[in-house]
Amino acid sequence: MSDSELGRKWDRCLADAVVKIGTGFGLGLVFSLTFFKRRMWPLAFGSGMGLGMAYSNCQHDFQAPYLLHGKYVKVCTELIFLFLSPESPKNSLECI
Question: Structural domain tally of the chain?
Fold first, then answer.
């Protein structure tokens, strides 16, 4: 694994962790204020759930090195013409 790919994976993991922990904390805060009489355990529970989900996603990302994340998509332009015109050559598919 190259250094740039490793850096991208760490960046993606840290960003995912920040989002998931923040969302868990926010949901814990809402539940704490509305249902649980301002107790602190919903905040800890929500943040812990977010941290656990982020850890699981990072672990899966580092253990599956050949997983594509959908940034580069090949588009076959000739494939449309194969179905529309019968005189197009079927052996020459050109994907960009």
Answer: 1
